[in-house]
Amino acid sequence: MTDTSCTRNDNLAWVAGSDAPEKGRVNLGFMPLSDAASLIVAATQGFAQPYGLTLELKRQTSWAGLRDRLQSGELDAAHALYGQVYGTHLGLGGAPTEMAILMGLCQNGQAINLCEPLRRAGVTNADALVAQVRQRGAKLTFAQTFPTGTHAMWLNYWLAAHGIHPLEEVNTLVLPPAQMVRHLRSGQIDGFCAGGPWGALAVDEKQGFTLATSQMIWPDHPEKVLACTRAFAERYPNTARALTMAVLEASRFIDASDENRRGTARLISGGEYLDAPLSAIEPRFLGLYEDGLGYAWRDAHPLRFFAGGEATMPWLSDGIWFMTQFRRWGLLKEDPDYLGVARQVHQLEGYREAAEALGIEVPARPMRSSRLFDGRVWDGSDPAGYARSFAVHAHPSLTPLAADARS
């Protein structure tokens, strides 16, 4: 990868005197996924040092383990699932820990894949899947990556929009993303929802096909975030700001050109990061998709790390959306203070300081409006009503949350 280090004299004031990071060495957790790229680039390509930071990358094997290490302080900050941060903050599936989102890391780039036996049986679209679910004696089994994570919510939303109740008509289990293809190959699961490169790898190895991408569900949807505990953000505010600036610069660099994206794909494919074939990373990294059914396309909403600051902005409405889905699926027994919780979690002032110092425009309002694939518009204005508006939802007798897998 081309050396990206350069002198940033305009920003040296941030590492001097009272603005100097309180903690110069930061343990930074990440999962082996394509959308961890901005953290890897920030740590290895000279983006952190000008801010007085050394980023120690710590690869994790499961989202549950990453969460536990954030809570214990073994990790200072991490690449995290949007919904996972909220679940941890709200105490869903464990003891609550006040959490902080420093910035968004990406939008788009996840996929729902089905297995090769279903392809051979002609189950290659939503209608055929519905028919299969209704006719089959035993339930199909789908894997996702964390009970309150984004992949659980994309899978639930997509199934429900097609009339399949995700809590009653199929079985689901939790697997680390890097184990998805192996479980698909062995026949232990019929499909999965996870981030790249694992969906593309299933296609490359002819173990499955991509039925839907997450950006088909919600174009430019929220995905991963840079997260830490609220205690860390409050104890080390200069460190949190410097970390945000370093990752913002790395995010902007990746999105600046296809050449930068290709170089980044080569970097993250290495054994210490994703340990996956470049052929499963680079095409979807560039927005080039093949579904394993003979269809190829250039995606209008590819994996984005920066997008002029839209992908990095910690939109309050994005966080509130996940809480509406927790309520919909019985993970929350009552409506929370949706906006109040989001304001606690999102470090908007710190993000604004970091972004403006880098000349990145920050929207005046921390809410945005989006239209999902079922025609519903989400703008954060009535979360309680939105959560109740779906025909397919959890029955009140369902338990709030099954224990999460710790594989």
From TrEMBL:
Entry keyword set: Cell inner membrane, Cell membrane, Membrane, Signal, Transport
Gene3D superfamilies named in the record: Periplasmic binding protein-like II
InterPro entries for this protein: NrtA/CpmA_ABC-bd_dom
Keyword Transport part of the UniProt annotation: yes
Transmembrane segments: none
Subcellular compartments: Endomembrane system
Keyword Cell inner membrane: yes
UniProt main location, coarse: membrane
GO CC aspect terms: endomembrane system
Record PANTHER family: ALIPHATIC SULFONATES-BINDING PROTEIN-RELATED, NITRATE_NITRITE BINDING PROTEIN NRTA
Name this polypeptide is given: Nitrate ABC transporter
